[in-house]
Amino acid sequence: MTLNPAELRELELCIAERLYIQIASWHLYLGDARLAGTLAIECNAKLDQGAGVAARHALESVQVSLAGGSTRLPLARLIPPNQLLDLEEILDPYCR
Q1: Quick one: which of 12, 33, 50, 86 could link to 40 by a disulfide (CB 3.0–4.6 Å)?
Q2: CA-CA distance, 21 to 52, in Å (whole number)?
Q3: Are 36 and 23 within 8 A, CB to CB?
Q4: pTM for this structure?
Q5: Helix 81-91 and helix 51-61: axis angle, to 10°?
Q6: Which secondary structure element, helix H or strand E, spans residue 10, and what is its range?
Q7: Cα(26)–Cα(6) distance, rounded to whole angstroms?
Q8: Residues in the chain with pLDDT < 50?
């Protein structure tokens, strides 16, 4: 299953507003970090495998540059555990 451009944009906006990176007690939303579009595209590529698989694989696939690009970490390492469940919830309607 592949989303059309309007659905992909809708998914990106949902991700941008709801998911965040947590550093200490700071929350940086993925829309502000300009990572929502990349995550939406990665999720779209795996939607046929279900929301849980799509969420986990996409979070591992998206690499986040730190310290001016000298270090890269998967997005999965930068979000709190409950954010995985939130992403699965966001993706679920797109998997049906």
Answers
A1: 12
A2: 19
A3: no
A4: 0.92
A5: 130
A6: helix 5-18
A7: 31
A8: none
Is 88 exposed, middle or buried, given 0-12, 13-18 or 19+ CB atoms closer than 10 A?
middle
Question: Does residue 87 contact residue 14 with C-beta atoms inside 8 Å?
Answer: no
One-letter amino acid identity for 68? G
pLDDT score of 1: 66
The pair of structure tokens assigned to 5 is 């451009």
Q: Is residue 94 within 8 Å of 7, Cβ to Cβ? A: yes
Residue ranges covered by each domain of the chain: 5-95
Task: Return the beta strands (E) in 1-96 as ranges.
Answer: 20-23, 26-29, 63-66, 71-74
12's tokens: 């990106």
- Give exposure, 7-41, as e/b (b: 16+ Cβ within 10 Å): ebeebbebbbebbbbeeeeeeeebbebebbbbbbb
Let me know: does 62 contact 39? Beta carbons within 8 Å: yes
